[in-house]
Each structure stands twice: as C-alpha cells, then as structure tokens.
Design goal:
This protein is an alpha+beta fold. Among the domains are: 87 residues, no CATH class; 79 residues, no CATH class; 153 residues, Nucleotidyltransferase, domain 5. Helix content is 35%, strand content 25%. The strands form 4 sheets. Strands 8-7-6-9-10-16-13-12-11 form a 9-stranded mixed β-sheet, sandwiched between helices. Helix 11 packs antiparallel against helix 12. The longest helix is centred in the last third of the chain and has 30 residues. 17% of the residues are buried. The model has no long low-confidence stretch (mean pLDDT 84).
C-alpha cells in the first residue's frame, strides 16, 4: 500500500492530488487498485498519511509503520523502514499455511495437544513428543511443504523417520485411552452418534520375511499378492465415517471369525449398549448374528446369493420401490419371523453381471465346440479322456456351468458330445443378476431407509483408502 501523486497544471500552477493505492494480483498480472482519493494535502495532512499503518504483534503490542510516496526517499536511519531491492528478491521454501493451520486448530479443538502432553511428555526431549505426534500422519507428503513446523515451534530438520517411529512406540500403549478421548471430544464438538457401527476388514502386506512378527501370515490377499505375508486390519466407523476403533489380526484369520472378538473389545472399551451393527456378507454367519442378539444388539447385513432362492417369486413381482434412478428395493417380511429381508436391484450392476455371464458362456461354448470337434474327427477316442476333459471345462467355468445340460451320447455316427441350455436356470440367472439381499432384525424403517443405512458401509471403505497403509516397508 502506498500514496501516489497525480499532478495537474492549472492556471499555470502545478497541483498534486493524492490517492491511496494497493497492488493486487489479477489473472493477467499485478495491477494497482485505488482505495480512496485524498485530494490535495497540505504539509501536516501529508505527514499524517505518511504514518497511518498500525500493526500488532502476537503479544498485542501496536507498532506504527510508515507509508512513503513512490518518489520520496525515506530517511536512511529510520528503524521502521526496510529497503527492498527488487532485483535481489527471491523465493525460498514456499510453504502452505492455511490448510495446516486449520488442521492444527482441529487438533486443538479435539484437545489432542493436551492429551499427548499428558501421555508422552513425561520426559524432556529435543522435540516434545506431543508435537511429533501432531505430524505423524502427514510427515512424508504434506509436512515438508507446509508451515506446520513454524506453527508447532519445531526447528527445521528436527523431524525424521526415526523420531516418528519412536513416537509411535510411545503412543501405542495409550491406544485405548486415545480412542475413548477422541470419541468423547468428537461427539461433543459435532454431536456425533455412535449407536450405528459399520464394520469391515482389509489387509496390508509386507515386503520381506517379517520373521519376528508372529502376526504376519499368508492368507486371502485383497491386494492380489498371495506371495507376501500380511496382517488383517479390522476397522469400526460410525455412520459419518469417523474411525471408532480398530484391531489387528493374524494374516490368515478368516473375516467371519473376528466378530466375537470385536464385540468383546467394544464392550470392554465403551461398555454394553444396544448398538446396530452393519456388516458385509463376508463377516455374516448364524453364529455371529446370535452373538449380536445375545448382547441385545441389532444388525443390518448382506447375505449370500444362495439365500435368495426362496424369494424367486418376489423377484418376479412389479411392486419395487424406486429409490434412485438405477436402484429399486422392496421389503419382504417372513411370517412369524423376527427378521426382515430387503431385496435390492441395480440396473448398472445387472448390465455388468449379464456381460460377465455372456463372456463366460462364450468361453465355455468355445471349449465345448473344440472338444466336440476332436471327438467327431476321431482325434479323441477314449471315453474316459473325453469325460475328464469335459469335467475340466466345467470346473474352469463355475460361473455358468449350471446353465448347461452336457452328455456324451452314442449316435449312428459314433460317440458325440451334446449340450443344451437349461431355460429355467437361464431365467433364474436373469432374475438375480444385479440383485442382492439384506437381512435385519430392525423392525422400524422403510426399505429405502434400511438400504441407505447399509450403503453407509462404504464409509468404512473410504476410511481404509484414506489410511494409505499398504505395503509396509518398515520393521
């Protein structure tokens, strides 16, 4: 901001009219914007305007900074004046400020600064462990490009991988206490509710033998890396996607076997309550559902497609409720039953599964044609070998093998392979393509409400993606 004179000659005299101007950045470059016109200024008025800017430091102390017109040379001995040589100005270590400042304010609102000061700052350290904890999750990508070190008062170069890992070691014993603290503060700040629990699992694998980690095992790999040892991570979030708690399991632990452990863990940390559990079908078993009911809980779960067979007539009816342009649902109650089933059908999913079925059918029929040709041309004469090849074809296409009637029959021209499509099975495939079923003991709520609540399970999946936890390269 500066004073700019505008000179005019009137009646043979030179007049100076003053305006207050600031420099602003526009898409097409920096421009000067006039804030106000001051008119002609006498010597005293000009002196007042030349010292108008008042600034405050962090302690609230006021300082006067002077403004000078562009053509006026400031006093060389004035301590309030700093001379800037534009041809020697350069940018060094430009950093973001707003986002990390906002994150730090949330950190303080959640009182995590106080929590970690009491938990891990019992011994003096070069950098207080509570401040290292504030940058644990963001050091690798975000921290070096922000002003967070200045906001936290951490000297440049004081943070490294070793210090961060040592901080993790100090935090781990306080895991349960930290989860309770976050649940309480997050609930107080945002009015969050924790009566609906969304539960899902993922895994992370390691690059190496991990010989000293007994949890690392080979099991079902979600990362398509069966060659690597892994561990299973179970995450519980509320309906807003806030991480409620997590547990780790051996890498070969089956998903369905983790439910009882999770129920006991939640009760131990947060007490008994009438919670609603939303589960993917991979975690569902009759034993797990009994365990939830035994604790007075409720559930909303996915079901295997094999359980849809009794509802074939319901799939044929036209009483579906459109909840989205491509999604239809309907509630089906079982007479004298304590559970309710919700049939769901998605147009996009139906087209995708139909295309998959057609692709597998084409592959299987091509294989059958090759086998039939080998039999007809007498390149394959042994019936046992024919049956073995036929069995391999069926085993290689389990998705569609039940659609076909296959037989080796004697004909006037010799042994021949014959097949036909089972129309009833084809009809059934067409019915359940794009369809899935939910199961719940919640008596309240419409089909649309229950379907929407189940779809919140994707919040847990989003939380997993945000963790960026695979693969593990450290010891």
């Amino acid at each position: 901001m500066f004073l700019r004179p505008n000179r005019r000659t009137k009646d043979g005299k030179d007049h100076s009219y003053w305006s207050l101007v600031e420099t602003v950045r526009r898409p097409d470059g920096p421009r000067q914007r006039t804030l106000c016109y001051l008119g002609e200024l006498n010597s005293s008025a000009q002196a007042r305007w030349l010292k108008t800017i008042e600034v405050f430091n962090e302690q609230g102390e006021a300082q006067q900074l002077k403004l000078f017109p562009s053509q006026v040379e400031p006093p060389p001995d004035d301590p309030q004046v700093a001379r800037v040589l534009l041809n020697k100005v350069r940018l060094e270590r430009t950093r973001q400020f707003g986002s990390c400042w906002l994150g730090l304010q949330l950190w303080k609102r959640l009182q995590l600064d106080r929590f970690f000061e009491g938990a891990v700052d019992e011994h003096a350290a070069d950098v207080p462990w509570s401040r290292v904890a504030a940058v644990l999750a963001i050091e690798e990508r975000w921290y070096p490009s922000t002003a967070l070190d200045d906001l936290l008062g951490i000297a440049e170069g004081k943070l490294n991988d070793t210090r961060l890992y040592r901080c993790l070691d100090r935090i781990l014993p306080h895991k349960t206490k930290l989860e309770r603290h976050l649940k309480q503060r997050y609930g107080e700040l945002f009015g969050a509710e924790f009566d609906v629990m969304l539960y899902d699992l993922t895994s992370t694998y390691v690059e190496g033998a991990a010989e000293k980690n007994p949890m690392m095992r080979r099991g079902y790999s979600r990362d398509h890396r069966p060659d690597c040892e892994q561990m299973v991570i179970a995450l519980i979030v509320n309906s807003e996607g806030f991480p409620f708690s997590y547990e780790t399991f051996d890498g070969n632990r089956a998903d369905v076997s983790t439910m009882e452990t999770i129920l006991r863990m939640v009760e131990r940390k947060y007490g008994k309550a009438r919670r609603i559990w939303v589960l993917d079908r991979g975690i569902v078993s009759e034993e797990n559902l009994r365990a939830i009911r035994k604790r007075g809980g409720q559930y909303l779960v996915g079901t295997p497609r094999s359980q849809m067979k009794p509802f074939e007539r319901e799939l044929l009816k036209d009483d579906w409720l459109q909840v989205r342009p491509d999604v239809e649902v309907k509630k089906v109650a079982i007479p004298q039953g304590e559970e309710i089933y919700i049939l769901c059908r998605t147009a996009g999913r139906k087209e995708k599964e139909k295309a998959i079925r057609n692709r597998f059918s084409s592959r299987m029929e091509d294989a059958l044609k090759r086998l039939a040709k080998a039999i007809e041309t007498d390149r394959l004469k042994d019936r046992n070998k024919m049956e073995r090849r036929l069995g391999r074809i069926q085993a290689s296409h389990p998705q569609v093998s039940d659609l076909y009637d296959l037989a080796l029959r004697d004909t006037p021209h010799g042994l021949r392979l014959q097949w036909s499509i089972k129309e009833d099975r084809k009809l059934w495939h067409g019915l359940w393509e794009g369809a899935y079923m939910l199961r719940t003991n919640l008596q309240a709520g419409s089909a649309e409400e229950l379907w929407s609540r189940y779809m919140q399970l994707t919040e847990a999946e989003v939380s997993f993606r945000a963790l960026s936890i695979r693969p593990l390269f450290h010891h």
